[in-house]
Design goal:
72% helix
Length: 338
Amino acid sequence: MSAAPDLVTETNPKDSAHTTTRERRGPGRRAAGSRPDGGSIRTRQARTGWIYTTPALLVVAAVTIFPVVYSVVMSFTKVRLTHAGTQVTDWTTANYTTMLASSAWREALLFTVGYTLVTVAVEIALGIAVAVLLERLEAGRGWLLALLLIPWSLITVVSAQLWDYLYDATYGAVTWLFGLVLAEPPVILGTPVPAITGMAAADIWKTTPFVAVIVLAGLVRIPREQYEAAEMDGAGSWTTFRRIVLPALRPVVAVAVLFRVLQAFGIFDLPFVLTQGGPGTATQSLAILGYRSLFQDLNIGLGAAIATSTGLLVVLGCLLFLRVFRSQVDTAGEGGAA
């Protein structure tokens, strides 16, 4: 009986060597030249990022988040001052009831909202005008931009003290200029309307450069081809500005408005230096009202309630703004990322 013939299978030497190497390496090992998985790289990068940022986040939480939470808690308490410090005697909502029933709070809210709307509107208009002029300059733009940023670089307390000298009723330069035109120049910081106007002028002088720089960054990104196409179509300067420049500037203007509303709504240092909230309560903002309740009247619960309500109004205003101008803000973010 003859034996069955052996089955001869041809094998590729390269496949055999590859299989042997793979079996020898085992499923858990990786080839020396192969790259690690992208997911593991991102995981290690994220872990490293958290390790480096955790100390900074803890500091931010200690100096920002904790005081905010503590202020919210204190706004629902009745606090009594003792020789050892503060003592919580009761948990109540009376602070908010007192605040809402107070005419001083309503007046401060009205002043803060009106002041924010007027100053931000003027700053946006002037910032756009200044940015357009700077963008069209062929020479000296850097020097003018540096001079423009001097007011913005000054600390608000310093610039407020400077304007206080200018508005002084005896030797102030602004009062002297009014004396050249009027028989009896007004006491600028001593009467309500001139005090509000003077404070707004000081704020606009300081913060318009901030808006102009943001708008200028948006202007330089507009392609020159659009201007050339508009010129070929016979469009004038105003038509070009209205049809090309303004639509392109909507994202950066939306961001500038958001930042300026946040800053203007919490205004404290400028009226505190110039008018102390006066004359009377004409320039008393919500921040100054909260300061007086906390540190002058020593009404900690009411002061915390005013601060909490101010923060809540700012958050609600920002959410409303982002909802209305979401597309513009998203476009600005994508342009900045690009």
